[in-house]
Hints:
The protein has one domain. Helix content is 56%, strand content 0%. It has 3 helices and no strands. Helix 1 (30-52) packs antiparallel against helix 2 and helix 2 runs antiparallel to helix 3.
Amino acid sequence: MTNPDSLKCPVCRARSRGDVTCPRCAADLEPLLGVIGRAAIARQHARVALEKGHWREARAWAETAQRLQATPLGRQLRALTRICAPDSLE
């Protein structure tokens, strides 16, 4: 999962301390943290599906994760799943 200290408030761009409210503007960060958590879970599901050889399922999970939260490692995971399950197989 993404380090909460590397997150920035979408309202004022202050660095988060991992709290559910922004230390600068008091914006509610709980929805953002929820999306990031769902993205981390989707990436984990993609990795498990890859380990089991479920290529299309892995690709679907990786695509979902990147839509929720684009990360460099998530981009690599999605690229790997696209190789394993290209569009021509679907």
